[in-house]
């Protein structure tokens, strides 16, 4: 008999007025557990994955300066010791509203992650976007935004119910992410 439980707690605090100076803080934690019971053989594993984010922006004429920071981690309670992977990223950008229908954003980001084997990955990259609003229903946009994706123990519990010690959970770098 297999039992899987997921539970999430989150809270968001932010500025009601979205113009001028805006501050946002998001706090969340995902709790996951997997338990197998079978004729004398019981096994269980659980994880906790906190996610903390903060953002600040301010308007200076037709330019919006934006910055953000986030921290994500995951810990595992299992029969073997496991290191907690984590990811910290920081971004800074300027969004210029050239006309009411045309805006351009340019910025940079720094991300550093640790995997559950003690290895580290870092990504430092510029990013940007451009958006042209054609009318109230259509807009054209292009963007280039590299990032690092965090994979938690809870993600692995859903994919691989029987964890083995050799599974490496590492933040994944995407140094080139394009879109339109």
Write up what this structure looks like:
It is elongated and about 70 Å long. The longest helix has 7 residues, at 153-159. 4% of the residues lie in helices and 66% in strands. The chain has one helix at residues 153-159, and strands spanning 2-14, 22-38, 41-60, 63-73, 75-77, 86-99, 102-114, 120-133, 139-144, 147-149, 172-174, 178-179. The protein is mainly beta and 180 residues long. The protein starts with a strand and ends with a strand.
Note the main attributes of this structure:
10-stranded antiparallel β-sheet; mainly beta; 1 helix; two-stranded antiparallel sheet; 180 residues
Portion in helices: under 10%
Any low-confidence stretches, pLDDT <50, length ≥5? Answer: none
Overall number of strands: 12
The run of helices and strands is EEEEEEEEEEHEE
Query: How large is the radius of gyration?
Result: 20 Å
Structural class label: mainly beta
Outline, from the CA principal axes? elongated
The proportion of strand residues reads over 45%
Terminal CA distance: 46 Å
Major sheet details: 10 strands, antiparallel
Helix count equals 1
| Mean pLDDT over all positions | 87
